Amino acid sequence: MISVLQRVRQARVEVAGEVVGAIGPGLLALVCAEQGDGQAQADKLLAKLLKLRIFADAAGKMNLSLQDVAGGLLVVSQFTLAADTRGGNRPGFSQAAAPAEGERLYDYFVAQARAAHPVVATGSFGADMQVHLVNDGPVTIPLRIAPGIVPGIASQSN
After folding, report:
1. Residue 101 within a domain
2. N or C: which end of the chain has fewer CB within 10 A?
3. Whether residue 9 has pLDDT greater than 50
């Protein structure tokens, strides 16, 4: 699975002019399931996202996690994170999970997030969404949990 995290002061998602999800300070997580991803990758991505120390402590150092600061989490599906831009000028999306599988993993990810964290909002899977945010820092972090990487097993080396 792929995610781009943005530390935000606030963020919201609108669909057809209606706000469907909003948070105050916290993380906006754009999330994409790729072919071969499963619940193990979703679980590992969520664990990393919740514990990633990208919030400032009292000394101004990035030492606190989303859980430490009790920030909000806004999860938005975004299959375009799987874009392949190696050839030509038009991105290909063949590595993204099929829509039904992508939605299943997105729903699973959101359910697990809600079980683990008190403030979770979402966009609408497959909808034409407008995402509004005030990036804090700015801090933007890409994360990728490759298919075949499961918790408790050593990750691949580059």
Report:
1. yes
2. C
3. yes
